[in-house]
Amino acid sequence: MKKILVTGALGQIGSELVTKLRETYGKDNVIGTDIKKREDHNDADGPFEIVDVTDYDRLFEVSKEYEVDTIMHLAALLSAKAEAIPKKAWDLNMGGLVNALEVARELDLQFFTPSSIGAFGPNTPKDDTPQDTIQRPTTMYGVNKVAGELLCDYYFARFGVDTRGVRFPGLISYVTPPGGGTTDYSVEIYYEAVKNKAYISYIGEGTFMDMMYMPDALNAIIQLMEADGSKLVHRNAFNISAISAEPEDFAKAIQKYIPEFKLDYDVDPVRQEIAESWPNRIDSSAATEEWGFKAEYDLDKMTKDMLAQVEAKFQ
Ligand code: AKB
């Protein structure tokens, strides 16, 4: 049985990953950590500790105390936020990662951390972006993600730490909102569709990005961590995607259920520039070949579920 410590447990991925891991491995075997507790925190849900990932000693202490065998390191600033405060992003994204990797090395733990489509840049091939290709990102987040991918490879090659990871696309979910990302519009559009039957997109018409529904993202993490390590050629930073879409595609999918839904644009130049530097559609075939990655939700299936779940929240 695994015993897993999750950093960034209150974030968009963390809040759902902790629940899923507790269902899979038992609630006492998953230790959620973040820089604060939720207001409605309940000890009965499972262990939770306050940990700032930039504090190595605290992360080490909590990992040792609970005798975990795995760290899933999620605490990070997303792309748009990182562009606003780049030095802070470097300190948190890189400082937190090297601390978590060091704890994994010291305590001989399995390790997961996500990279992102943000690890690609304007001169990366935009369509069917290969697993191994040019990575010259032009954002602080992208620089952090490429450095993180390399650092994880280094900890495996140099110290034998069992590091694994994926390059996540924009993740869409109804439990915890994302914060500070470039792909956040793909979540906001569903909330605004339900509340106001209209959305003003800060990402321009015709801008394609990769996306994925959260259940597919959570399954991918568990599947990769359970995979036979000897079959992994890439190990860290597997391309995975389920959907390649532009704002109009979301609008058309929503209009099947809310025909009066209206999409307008008020483009934010900062996030638009970031989006334009990322691929339109990445190729996930290495993940499929090496550990069986397969997404269940396409845009229509996800839209049906998202709208139902968001509507239920407002009833
Ligand atoms: C962001 O937009 O910053 C994230 C990501 C794609 O990594 N959702």
Condensed summary:
The chain has 315 residues and is α/β, with parallel strands linked by helices. Helices cover 43% and strands 17% of the residues. The protein has eleven helices and 16 strands.
Task: Give an overview in words.
α1 (12-25) links the parallel β1 and β2 (30-34). The chain has 11 helices and 16 strands. The radius of gyration is 19 Å and the shape is globular. By secondary structure, the chain is an alpha/beta fold. The protein has helices at 12-25, 56-65, 79-84, 86-107, 140-159, 185-196, 214-226, 247-255, 269-277, 285-291, 299-313; strands at 4-7, 30-34, 48-50, 70-73, 110-112, 115-116, 127-129, 163-164, 166-168, 170-172, 198-201, 209-213, 238-239, 243-245, 262-265, 281-282. Helix content is 43%, strand content 17%. Strands 3-2-1-4-5-8 form a 6-stranded parallel sheet. It has a 3-stranded parallel sheet with strand order 6-9-13. The structure holds 2-amino-3-ketobutyric acid. 2-amino-3-ketobutyric acid (AKB) is lined by residues 78-79, 116-118, 141, 168-170, 178, 181-183. Belongs to the NAD(P)-dependent epimerase/dehydratase family. GO terms for molecular function: L-threonine 3-dehydrogenase activity. Residues 4-230 form the NAD-dependent epimerase/dehydratase domain. One of its GO terms (biological process) is L-threonine catabolic process.
